[in-house]
Description:
Blueprint: E1 21-23, E2 29-34, E3 44-50, E4 59-61, E5 65-72, E6 75-79, E7 85-87, E8 92-95, E9 101-105, E10 111-118, H1 122-135, H2 140-149, E11 152-154
Antiparallel strand pairs: 1-2, 2-3, 3-10, 4-11, 5-8, 5-10, 6-7, 6-9
Amino acid sequence: MSFETDTAALRPRIVAADDGEPIRPFCIDMRVMHDAAATGGAFSAIVAELKPGEGPPPHLHRDREEYFYVLDGTYSMRVNGAEPTTIRPGTLVFVPRGTVHTFRNIGTTPGHLLEWTIPGSNEPYFRAVHDMEAGSGFDPERFAEINRRFATEFAG
């Protein structure tokens, strides 16, 4: 999926933490702070709350760069099969498109990550997964279609 930046309709936005749109893809609590529509497709920003042990399996995105900023918590981050790196509050991670990555909350308390993508296609992806799960539940065929549509692949 490709997003073109449409700057004609852009306007300033201030979104407080509690005002972000709540979604829950993969049973992970998220707040959409800025969606692709509000940024003309330029980026999307999400705050994710990960409980101890939570995190995605290794995956990659073919159409977007992804950034993570650790707000609180302690995570193990692995990029391109390298040894895991422990990341803590104040750490910024850049993952270029096509790069296999995974992370997990290795702390004993819930943690929060600010995640954003350029262009803004992660929020529509997470919303599609959320809508699938909230509707008819997890459907492997529909999930595969969502992954194809949003150029996301799970590794192994």
